[in-house]
Structure formats: structure tokens, C-alpha cells
Amino acid sequence: MSIRERLSGNEAVSVAMRQINPDVFPAFPITPSTEIPQYFSSYVANGLVDTVFIPVESEHSSMSAAIGAEASGARSMTATSSCGLAYMWEELYVAASDRLPVALALVNRALSGPININCDHSDVMGARDAGWIQVFAENNQEAYDNFVQAYRIAEHPSVRLPIMICQDGFITSHAVENIELLEDEKVKAFVGEYDPEHYLLKKDEPMAIGPYGTPAFYMEAKRAQLEGLKNAKQVTLDVAKEFAEISGRSYGLFEEYQTADADYIMVVIGAAAGTAKDAADQLREKGIKAGVLKIRLFRPFPAEEIVAAIKHAKVIACMDRTESYNGNAGPLGAEIKAALFDAGETVKVLNYVYGLGGRDVTVDSLTSVFEDMQKVAQSGVVGETYRYLSVRE
Amino acid sequence: MSKAVEIRWHGRGGQGAKTASLLLADVTFNTGKYIQGFPEYGPERMGAPITAYNRISDTPIRVHSNIYEPDYVVVVDETLLEAVDVTKGLKKEGAIVVNTARAKEEILPLLKGYEGGVYTIDARKVSMAALGKYFPNSPMLAAIVKVSGIMPEETFLKEMEASFKHKFASKPEVVAGNMKALTMALEEVK
Amino acid sequence: MATDIRKMNENVSWKDLTEGCNIYGSGTSKLFNTGEWRVDCPEFIQEKCKQCLLCIPVCPDSSIPVVDGKRVDFDFDHCKGCGICAKVCPFGAIKMKGAVE
């Protein structure tokens, strides 16, 4: 029996962390993820976990400490947002290239400037090429479920890479909603003990981590790292299948909502996906075949699977909650267009920048995107493909 | 599509409007509903106008936007009536509850011709009488429960008592005062 | 599973690299013959040596073996010929003799 609760997204992820009971948790606070280490430190103080909690002086240090701990053989996690993630930058690459399966709870927030504390995906999208596995959530339930599954994916012997479990700042992190939690024992049994083959503190096998890679080896090292990331796709599916057995909740690489027969498909990431489903339902009532494809796994990017799910549409709208400053496409738009092109598909694609810095995303605003898609289909004229949603002209 | 009851709270930073919205989420959750309780965040500090929201539904809630056409509005601080357009988008089938010592007739001119239900409650009077201090959120919570009819009053009181007993386990003397604030508020709202 | 560092050469496929290029097992640098880099060469003049052992800790490549508390001739598989030992020797027992051997 699962436990019916109501929790904010930050509380939900903290509960998953408590249930996992990691070895080491270094942290530095930053809005809107501050509550996560705050809740976790109270679990430490109250003896609910036996984690070593390390309050550090910066995010550069929190990720460094997580890397050091993980290298020594300890299961490690931390949390951050926005500029905190930016300050972890060089360490993100180290965690990935050293093949250390650290888990990071990332509560998405805009990067400065102007200074802003609200949600967008500029933090996580900036880190998309750091070699981490990136998993996104629509709501508190998914943030919790994803975190419970995180180490099973990251620590898998064929993967061994760090993982970011993302949720939208304030929109899900601070909204109290219904949730179903799993019992502590169930989560512990599912996640299991961390038992790496090699680690620095293994007493009968001294080892060196993080060697210098000369030009003769660097490319091979990166290529080998890619293989781990590619493997994460199948492992994510395998872990999701097992997770469904204990939770009754199914996850894939992405969620297809009314897409099978859809003429108009919106591809979206995060909390706005729920709002998009409501918009699609309203349009369906009017006989317009609208569907939503919600990305769960962004790195590795499931290009072929997504193409198969959307290629039949008349028009596709890719929703980017970040600016990529290339004047052409956002990170999601570029991925989708590249995937369609490689598959020889010529479906029309619009790419919207939306919800920057917490700009509210409503059923009405997303309905207007579906209406734009219809206009393109009816007129055959695409016009500007790179568009801003809900911006004052 | 789920049809949720949507409530918007207007208060000032530090008065507990956000807490009240989370309490309402709690108590309605306990009666088996699907709920959302969330504040609109920004750099606001003590005294600045803040907004918080609730959605309450019999079916799962998927939408994650602010609320623009609420069924009910709660105004925790009446000085906001002149600073903020509190009835903006408020459905006329719905209602507004204002914390004020003034008569309803004095409030009406500030509501920009709002045609729906208008209710007032003197949360300061209730809070001072029941708790000896000014904590407007318990009375306002009771008031919106009564005005919206989202749950029977008895259920509300029962759930809140359990919740207070849990929350104030270390200082049970506070429970009676808070319960008194709720029962008084249920009668006082007009 | 110790890393066989001798197999890590410029012909190795990415598939045969260890995870993260990590090196399992200790002392693998012994297998790396840095003596090949030597452009100057120390000569140990045993009769001048007082066995003060000042040269031992300053050698960056641990290339002065000590046997039964006494230093012996250089480990030329690893000595890079930097000359630090010759500088610190108070007794002129180490001489740099140019690029021979």
C-alpha cells in the first residue's frame, strides 16, 4: 500500500533522499532548492539517516565534495539551482568523465540577468553537454519517483554516470500537491546498497582516479564516456519497468499524451506539460486533434523513439523554456529538428521560447500555440519558426 | 477536464496568507480531495502584497499556472483593497471574503462593481478574543471554508483539531485558542 | 582487475580503456620507463659518498635505491637526469656527465 500524502516538490525529493539514506550529502543553499538540504539536515539531526552532511562554502565545493566522496566509494548526492549549478560547472564535467554516479536534485531556475529567482530551464540546458543523465518531472510525484530511480540508472555497471533529477522551481518545488509515497523499506530494497567494483578506499586495491588524458587518449576517453550515456537509455527503461512493479506507476523515455492520432503535437518539458494536456483536452472537445509529448529523459536524447512518436503530425511545436541565443532554435527545438531531419521527415516544426524567468504558462497561452500550429497547417505557410510566447511586443 | 474550485489569496508578506493557503490545502486533502496550494514567489518581503492560490478538485489536477478567474478571493489585509485589484477575474457566481471591522456597505465601493457574493469578517476581533494575539490566518481559513462550502463545518473543525494537535504537540494549550478562533470565525463571517 | 598499463598505448581502442581512464592497482608508474627521457646523466662516485642520504628525498623520480640503509647506484630505468641530487650532494659524490648511456 502506498502512502497518500500532500507535499511540495522539494519535500517530496527530500523524502526520497531520506529513504535512500546516502553516505554523503554536501550542500550549499540556493533558492528555490534551499529547502532540500534544509529538510535533509533535519533528518540528519533527528537521526533518521546516518549520512555525513557537509555544509560547504559554495556549490563548486559541494560538487567537489560529492565527487571526492563518490570516488572514495560513498553514495553521494546534493541539490542546487540556477547560479549554483553554473558555479558547479567544471566539476560537473569531472563527475561525468570520472564516471562517478553522483545524484543531483536540480530545481530549475533562471540564470541571471536580470536577476530572477523563478523557473526556467536555462540552468539545466546550459549543462546539457556536461555528460550527465538528465531526467525531468512534471510534478512532485514524478520528481519523487525519478529520484527513487536515479541511482539504479546512474550506478548501473553499463552506465556509471552522474544524474540530474530536475523539477521546475517554485511551480512544483513550492506547490503542495497530492502525492503517493512508497514505504521506506520498499524504496531501500529497490535502490539497494551501493557496491562499486572499484573505489579509492578499497583496501586491497589502490587506484588512481582522474588521470591526465593526452591527445592520444582524450578522444577515446570521451567516446567511451558516450557509450555509458547511450546505455543509460535502455537502463532507464529497465529500471522504470521494475519501478512500476513496486509503485504501479509507469515511466518511459517520454510520455505520449493523445499523440497517436494527433495532427498537432506539442513537445514540452516540465510542469507546463500538465497545463498542455489540459489545453489539448479542451481542443479535443472541439474536434481538434491535439497531443502532447512530454520529455522525461533529455540526456541521452531519445531521438529515434521521439521521431517515431511524432512524425505523423501535420505540425509540431517544440517548447523551450530557455533562450539559446543562436537566433535559430532552442535546445529542444534543435534536437527535435535534427532528429526529424536525420530520419528524412519533413513535418513542419515551430519552436517557441516560453516561460522565461517564471513567466506564467497558462492553458490559454498553450492553446494559442496549438492555434498557431493549425494556422500553419491550413495555410501551408510556416513563417518565422523561432517564436516567443507570451512576450509583450 | 477536472473542474477545480479555485481560490486566490491576497495578503501582505508576513501575515500568513501563504500559510493559510497551505492549511486549506492540508485540510481539504484530509477530506480526500486533490489539492494544490502555492504562493506566487518573488522578491517580496514583510508588508509587500503577496498572492497565494488553491485548487481543490475531485479529480487529479494537472494545470500548473496561476489562477486568473478564481471562484473565490480571500483578502487577508483590507488595506490591499485600494492597492490591488482584488476582484480581477473573480467569477460573479463566486464570492470575496474580506478581513475588516467595517460594514459590508463600506467595502462595496472598493470592489469595482463586483456583482458576486461579498462577505466580511473581523479577523482581528476574533483572533484577539480567542488567542490574545493577531493571527488573521486561522479566522480567514474558517471564513473561506464557510463561504465556499467546500466541506461541512463539522468536518473542517474535526480535521483542524487533529491538525493543531499534531502541529502543537509540544504546547497543547494553543490548540483550544486556535479552535476557538475557528468556531468564532464560522459564526462571525457575514 | 589491475590495469595493465603496458597495454595502454596509442593503438588502443576506446573500447579497451578503463572507465574514466582510471588506473586500478598501485605502482604502475614503474612500468613507465622515464629513463628514456634522460639528456644528462648522473654518475655515482662511491668512494666519495659518506652515505648521508641527502640525495634520496630530493630525487623526483625515486630513482636512488637504498639497500640495507645504504644508497646504491642509480635506477637508470627511471632517472630523468635532472641533476638535483648532484646539486645537493655535499661531498661531490655525484657528477653530471652529459648525455651518455
Overview of the structural elements:
The complex is a heterotrimer of chains A (393), B (190) and C (101). Chain A is α/β, with parallel strands linked by helices and 393 residues long. Helix content of chain A is 42%, strand content 19%. Chain A is built from 13 helices and 16 strands. In chain A, the strands form 4 sheets. In chain A, strands 10-12-11-14-15-16 form a 6-stranded mixed beta sheet, sandwiched between helices. Chain A has a 5-stranded mixed beta sheet with strand order 4-5-7-6-13, sandwiched between helices. The longest helix of chain A has 33 residues. The relative contact order of chain A is 0.12. The mean pLDDT of chain A is 97. Chain B has one domain: 3-Layer(aba) Sandwich (Pyruvate-ferredoxin Oxidoreductase, domain 3). Chain B has 190 residues and is α/β, with parallel strands linked by helices. With 101 residues, chain C is mostly loops. Chain C folds into 2 domains: 32 residues, no CATH class; 68 residues, Alpha-Beta Plaits. Chain C has 2 helices and 5 strands, in the order E-E-H-E-E-H-E. In chain C, a hairpin with a 2-residue loop joins strand 3 and strand 4. The longest helix of chain C has 5 residues. Strand 8 of chain A pairs antiparallel with strand 2 of chain B, so a sheet runs across the interface.
Largest contact between protein chains?
A-B, 29 and 22 residues
Low-confidence stretches of chain B: none
Major sheet summary line of chain A: 6 strands, mixed
Give the overall form of chain A: globular
Rounded average pLDDT of chain B: 93
CATH C-level of the largest domain in chain A: Alpha Beta
Oligomer: heterotrimer
Strand content of chain A: 15-25%
CATH fold description of chain B: Pyruvate-ferredoxin Oxidoreductase, domain 3
Lateral strand order in the biggest sheet of chain A:
10-12-11-14-15-16
Structural class label of chain A:
alpha/beta
Distance between the termini of chain A: 52 Å
Identify the strand order in the major beta sheet of chain B.
2-3-1-4-5-6
Number of domains of chain B: 1
Task: Sum this structure up briefly.
The complex is a heterotrimer of chains A (393), B (190) and C (101). Chain B is an alpha/beta fold. Helices cover 39% and strands 19% of the residues of chain B.
Q: Key terms for this structure?
A:
heterotrimer, B: 190 residues, alpha/beta, Pyruvate-ferredoxin Oxidoreductase, domain 3, 7 helices, 6 strands, globular, C: 101 residues, little secondary structure, Alpha-Beta Plaits, two-stranded antiparallel sheet, two-stranded antiparallel ribbon, 2 helices, 5 strands
